[in-house]
Design a protein that fits this description.
mainly alpha
Length: 83
């Protein structure tokens, strides 16, 4: 799991060591595909555009979005988009 997360982080423009570690940690907690959950994917646009570091973007997300992402990644959400 952790091997694919740095590549995914790179695809979102995440370069700094702290942000890479936090992205990988979030993936290990929420699930490897957490960054594909639509609300998180949308928030990652500001990271890719260089307007906000990943760590700050992650802190700004409401706790319920993170909980929903974990459920979505686990496959328990029937409204999950194909990925």
């Amino acid at each position: 799991m952790a091997c694919g997360l740095p590549d995914a982080a790179n695809g979102h423009g995440i370069r700094g060591l702290q942000d890479l570690v936090n992205f990988t940690g979030a993936g290990m907690i929420l699930g490897e595909r957490f960054h594909r959950f639509p609300p998180i994917a949308q928030a990652l646009v500001v990271v890719k555009e260089g307007r906000q570091p990943f760590t700050e973007m992650l802190k700004s997300l409401p706790a319920d979005v993170l909980r929903q992402a974990r459920v979505w990644v686990s496959g328990d959400d029937k409204d999950k988009e194909g990925a």
